[in-house]
TrEMBL record:
Matching CDD domains: NR_DBD_EcR
Family: Belongs to the nuclear hormone receptor family.
Keyword Nucleus: yes
Domain NR LBD: 191-303
Keywords tagged on the record: DNA-binding, Metal-binding, Nucleus, Receptor, Transcription, Transcription regulation, Zinc, Zinc-finger
Protein name: Zinc finger, C4 type
Composition bias, Basic and acidic residues: 138-150
Pfam families registered for this protein in UniProt: zf-C4
Length: 303
DNA sequence: TACGAAGATATGACCTCG
DNA sequence: CCGAGGTCATATCTTCGT
């Protein structure tokens, strides 16, 4: 026994056996037939339409209802949804003239999708993946809330990268004790050095505030080299940068294990990393919205 | 070239939900 | 009850080693 496809291919009847067995069982003993059709038994012999039974307009299988504006089976519904959500682009190997039936629907995705469109399935009725994701998350949150009353992070926070979204206490739970201790030592070193630096920066700002071209002037003028008043602004900026560099030097010097290195290695490490560290620190102190750099108590605008 | 194993991907029947 | 998306067992395809 064999089924001849629309391409004239002979299709082995064994492909259809799983479904056939199910149909037989259904006919012989409707009460004890399996509750479900065999899953994945996708190669089925074309079923004759029972009187009054509606057929899929794409492949002729038994329709399960209107999906995306057209009468289709579950297979074509799922295929259309997947194709749209994935923005799939298919290629036809047979000259784009495939006659889509229950066999050919699996053989040519391109013509199947074409036919879906032709019979009126509408891509705009497929809910975008992003919207589905948000709905899914909202549902999960709702379930979680009803279960233990605890509130999950808002969708906006869950969208953030994990390293930003996680608070430090949550992260610490996964750390080894020695790692936690190392982090706390580095943090306290940085904080102590920051106190000294802030005092130095504050005094620099106070001193320069009495100067003709103090911090207020710096804020007012653009960050350009040509005007002479800016030279004092640059002088102040340079002094602040030196303070930052000293701050970095102080932190690095006090890092656990750093003192155990030989003088030459310490010097190389300091020299090689200082520029990158200063760049990173500057990036942290730059306010994108205000387009200005915060150093000490001062604000440097870039226009 | 043929074959089989393993992994990746597609399918579709059934489910839940609004 | 209808029609969305979700789930997951199964089919099919692809890759790789022999």
């Amino acid at each position: 026994l064999k089924y001849i496809s629309s391409l004239g291919e002979e299709v082995k009847w064994s492909h259809y056996l799983a479904q056939e067995r199910y149909q037989e069982q259904l006919v012989q003993n409707p009460t004890q037939a399996p509750a479900r059709k065999p899953r994945g038994s996708k190669c089925r012999a074309p079923t004759l339409a029972l009187p009054g039974e509606e057929l899929c307009l794409v492949c002729g299988d038994k329709a399960s209802g209107y999906h995306y504006n057209a009468l289709t089976c579950e297979g074509c519904k799922g295929f259309f949804r997947r194709s749209i959500t994935r923005r799939a682009v298919y290629y036809c190997k047979f000259g784009q003239t495939c006659d889509i039936d229950m066999y050919m629907r699996r053989k040519c995705q391109h013509c199947r999708l074409e036919k879906c469109m032709r019979i009126g399935m509408r891509a705009e009725l497929v809910i975008p993946e992003e919207q589905c994701r948000m709905k899914r998350e909202a549902k999960l949150r709702q379930r979680s809330n009803t279960r233990d009353g605890a509130e999950l992070p808002s969708p906006s926070s869950s969208d953030l990268p994990s390293q930003v979204a996680c608070d430090s206490t949550a992260v610490e739970h996964d750390l080894l004790p020695e790692t936690s201790e190392l982090i706390s030592r580095i943090t306290s070193t940085s904080q102590q050095a920051a106190l000294i630096r802030d005092e130095a920066m504050a005094s620099l700002s106070v001193n320069s505030a009495t100067h003709e071209h103090g911090p207020i002037f710096v804020q007012k003028y653009s960050f350009k080299m040509q005007s002479s008043p800016c030279s004092s602004a640059f002088q102040q900026l340079a002094e602040l940068t030196i303070l930052e560099a000293q701050h970095v030097h102080e932190i690095v010097r006090q890092l656990p294990g750093f003192s155990r290195l030989c003088e030459e290695d310490r010097r190389i490490l300091q020299k090689a990393s200082k520029t990158e560290i200063l760049m990173l620190r500057s990036a942290r102190k730059y306010d994108v919205a205000e387009r200005c750099l915060y150093l000490g108590h001062d604000r440097y605008s870039f226009r």
